[in-house]
Amino acid sequence: MERMGVYSTIHHPSNDRLEVVRERIKDIELEEVQNLEDAWLALDSGDLDLVLAPANLVWNDRIKLASMQFDVVAALTRNHPHHVLVSEDGLEHFPAGGIVLCDEPLIHRQIRRRRNKIDIRKFDTMEIEPTTAEGLRTAQNLIQSGEINGFVTHRGAYDVAGLNGRRHALHNDPEARGLPRFVPTPFCDLIVIIARQGYPGHTLSDWTDEHAFNSWIVQRTVMHRTPAELHEFVGIHYRQQQIGSILTEAERVNDLFILDNLIDPEGDVDDQPRYEIIVELLSKHGLRTTSIERIGPISRLSVDIQFMMNDWNSILERFMTEADGFIQP
């Protein structure tokens, strides 16, 4: 029987996600691991055959994993690939000078773009540790006492911490046309499976998700092709849908970009499922934005993402040479 090490964080609760598919996992013994360093060593020695871990941490260890000849072979279904603002009011109804706690540099800039008179602070200014359930409950208590107006956390962490305050999704909402959007941070809500090179990932298809695996491939490619000093400030949205669902949503909100991409001059539409990718970068105070978007058949994803990144690199090269350092931190 194979053995899989499972590593969880409050922001990416791998154990909780596995519960949904546990009955479909056959011939694999699950073992909770306390740190990734030990997990990599166990995978390398053969004590483990697989490791389940948050994609953002896997990305951070990418050089080590490549040297150890490990590959990401599959991913779990994403539930909520976005952060939430825990607050009694949405951003549009915040008072001027309202206080929001946020440790994500990208979301800090996105909030500035939406409401530039909000006072955005880091959690440590209130001596709060946002990676623990206790810390998040403390932040919620500060809202109730009126010391802050809100805080930003992962949607998964909201559930794990047992929070019950009002929450507002910070995502790319097609209904919020005309308002600056929230493109997710890289690898948000993405949990992947790592194995030694040569492992047949297709044998895990009963309980893993192709959509999520494609999301890993796209986001990994975007990060590889974006200068490292900009990684904290880039947002990446990926999803794939059947053509009918995409058209229905686009027609409802009158999204001409999508409609023009999907309907040919004769008014015909093929039935191939489509991917949607948005990559976005914000200036320091959220006042200027550069982005690139693509929609296309999933069958062409591996090719299209490379051409898209060629265009992205051309855009970055242009903006990075501007005298005012548009996208510099």
What does the model show?
The protein has 3 domains: 2-78 and 190-208, D-Maltodextrin-Binding Protein, domain 2, CATH 3.40.190; 83-170, D-Maltodextrin-Binding Protein, domain 2, CATH 3.40.190.10; 223-320, no CATH class. The strands form 3 sheets. A 5-stranded mixed β-sheet has the order 2-1-3-10-4. A 5-stranded mixed β-sheet has the order 7-6-8-5-9, with helices on both faces. A 3-stranded antiparallel β-sheet has the order 11-12-13, with helices on both faces. The longest helix is centred in the C-terminal third of the chain and has 20 residues, at 301-320. The model has no long low-confidence stretch (mean pLDDT 90). 34% of the residues lie in helices and 22% in strands. The protein has helices at 14-21, 36-45, 55-60, 62-67, 105-114, 133-145, 155-160, 210-224, 243-253, 256-262, 301-320, and strands spanning 2-6, 28-32, 50-54, 70-75, 83-87, 99-101, 119-121, 150-154, 167-170, 191-196, 234-241, 274-282, 289-297. Helix 9 (243-253) packs antiparallel against helix 10 (256-262). With 329 residues, it is α/β, with parallel strands linked by helices.
Which tags fit this structure?
329 residues; alpha/beta; D-Maltodextrin-Binding Protein, domain 2; 3 domains; five-stranded mixed beta sheet
What is the secondary structure topology, with strand pairs?
Blueprint: E1 2-6, H1 14-21, E2 28-32, H2 36-45, E3 50-54, H3 55-60, H4 62-67, E4 70-75, E5 83-87, E6 99-101, H5 105-114, E7 119-121, H6 133-145, E8 150-154, H7 155-160, E9 167-170, E10 191-196, H8 210-224, E11 234-241, H9 243-253, H10 256-262, E12 274-282, E13 289-297, H11 301-320
